[in-house]
Design goal:
This protein has eight helices and 18 strands. By secondary structure, it is α+β, with helices and mostly antiparallel strands. Helix 5 packs across helix 6.
Length: 482
């Protein structure tokens, strides 16, 4: 393999760094080398809370573009969208703000309309917008309901409260008792009259017995039926009397119940008890509103989080061994994320020993397998991301540049600085290319200005899953029955 001097390597690195910094500065400054693919559409929303620049634009769950700008125009949020050229957006499409999963980011969903609708051209407007009710509206609705309940309770208390209300209820019960007594007397009086009529009917039947045997026979044949009907009528009268007696017994209980309701209504109106405090005490209203607002803010923050779990292995050609990375990335916003890595480095531990060979003393650096940790904070500015913190158990920083809609990433890292000048810092440059949503390949040059001969080209592969992908994998896995 071709060996270069340290001065030559530093020169090459500085030259490449200058080219990358000039190119990245032009891109960050808005100067582009080529026209971005696709066409531009605009949409106006009453509220774009939680939506960030470069957020995803989707149709039927498939990403078709990105939000490039978010502007304020006529007290509304104006979104400038960049749509892929092969995707046609109809004039009757509807724009809706949605959230990807419990911990997902906000994105813009475009709901298709009629398949025969004409397509929007460059600079067109999406005029149809749908919105969902938020927690604040629900809290206001709950406050209105509580106010209505309080008004009804006050009306109920004003009608039944006081001495006049109690006197009115007593008069109602007294009138009910008088009606019951009158009905009972009427039933008893009619019962006596009905018995007298039956006696007269029997006397009449006896008087005409000699005049007509046929009529007598008819009466004799139906006498049992007539007596049965009379008996049934008497039984019905007895049951009616029992019902009236039961009503007389229930009347005092009704009066007691009405009195209890009146007492409860008065206590509520005075603010006594839990329900009374809830309706009358403004402090309780304020505490409830603050609690619901806190819950709403917490849910809004957690919905923006995205979590990624990934692994990659890099084969070091000079070492003839593999360097392994297990990563966890937590992204609370589209332009900010935290990175935690566990690194299995075959050249992790370095030990310098002094040996004597043939009377000559020399220093030899040996390495051994070691696990290292990385903990970084990253901030993204459009296509450029800057990160820093602990890299492979030492302080350092990194610069990432994204191209081709984040399918290609050029990364540079610098860490393990030796201020005693015994060795050069660990510098690494490489490229990551995504094959699809989950798998990627990577290649580059690791520790390329090392004084100890640890510089090596590498080639690796890896995969990455988001929290929703892991949830789908775990929930769809078949259960094993014992």
């Amino acid at each position: 393999m071709l060996k270069l001097s340290a001065e030559a390597k530093v020169g090459i690195f500085v030259f490449i760094g200058l080219i990358l910094l000039v190119y990245m500065s032009l891109r960050v400054g808005g100067i582009k080398f080529g026209r971005e693919e696709g066409y531009t559409l605009t949409v106006r929303l009453d509220n774009a809370s939680g939506l960030d620049t470069n957020a995803s634009v989707r149709v039927a769950g498939v990403e078709v573009g990105r939000v490039r700008k978010i502007l304020l125009e006529d007290n509304k949020a104006k979104l400038v969208l960049r749509i892929r050229p092969e995707v046609k957006i109809g004039k009757d499409f509807t724009a809706v703000l949605r959230t990807s999963g419990m911990l997902g980011e906000r994105y813009l969903e475009l709901i298709p309309g009629s398949p025969n609708a004409p397509s929007l051209e460059e600079g067109g407007d999406i005029t149809r917008v749908a919105t969902y009710a938020d927690m604040e509206k629900l809290i206001n609705l709950l406050a209105d309901v509580a106010s209505d309940v309080k008004n009804v309770t006050a009306s109920f208390s004003s009608v039944l409260g006081g001495n006049e209300g109690e006197a009115t209820l007593k008069n109602i019960v007294k009138n009910l008792e008088e009606v019951t007594e009158n009905v009972n007397a009427i039933i008893k009086e009619n019962d006596k009259r009905f018995s007298t009529v039956m006696v007269n009917f029997e006397d009449f039947s006896a008087s005409i017995k000699d005049a007509s045997r046929n009529l007598n026979s008819l009466i004799v044949e139906n006498k049992d039926n007539l007596k049965g009907g009379v008996e049934n009528l008497k039984n019905a009268s007895l049951k009616l009397e029992e019902a009236m007696d039961t009503l007389n017994k229930i009347a005092p209980k009704v009066e007691d119940t009405i009195s209890s309701v009146d007492s409860i209504a008065k206590k509520i109106d005075r603010g006594e008890g839990t329900l009374g405090k809830l309706i009358n005490d403004p402090t309780t209203h304020e505490i409830l509103n603050k609690t619901l607002s806190g819950i709403n803010n917490y849910i809004d923050r957690t919905e923006r989080f995205r979590t990624f779990v990934s692994y990659r292995g890099e084969f070091l050609f000079d070492e003839q061994d593999t360097k392994n990375y297990l990563s966890l990335k937590v992204q609370p916003k589209a332009d900010k994320y935290y990175l935690f890595e566990v690194v299995d480095d075959p050249r992790g531990r370095r030990k310098t020993e002094t040996v004597t060979i043939g009377g000559a003393t020399t220093s030899v650096t040996k390495t051994s397998q070691e696990f290292k940790l990385s903990l970084e904070l990253a901030k993204r500015f459009e296509d450029l991301a800057i990160r820093g913190g602990v890299i492979e158990s030492s302080g350092g920083f990194g610069i990432d540049y994204y191209m081709l809609k984040d399918r290609v990433k050029i990364a540079f890292e610098a860490f393990d600085f030796d201020f005693n000048k015994k060795r050069n810092p660990h510098l690494k440059i490489g490229t990551l290319v995504r094959l699809n949503k989950y798998f990627f390949v990577t290649a580059g040059y690791d520790d390329f200005i090392s004084k100890d001969g640890f510089e090596s080209a590498y080639l690796g592969v890896g995969f990455e899953f988001e929290d929703e992908d892991l949830k789908y994998l775990f929930t769809s896995a078949p259960s094993i029955k014992p």
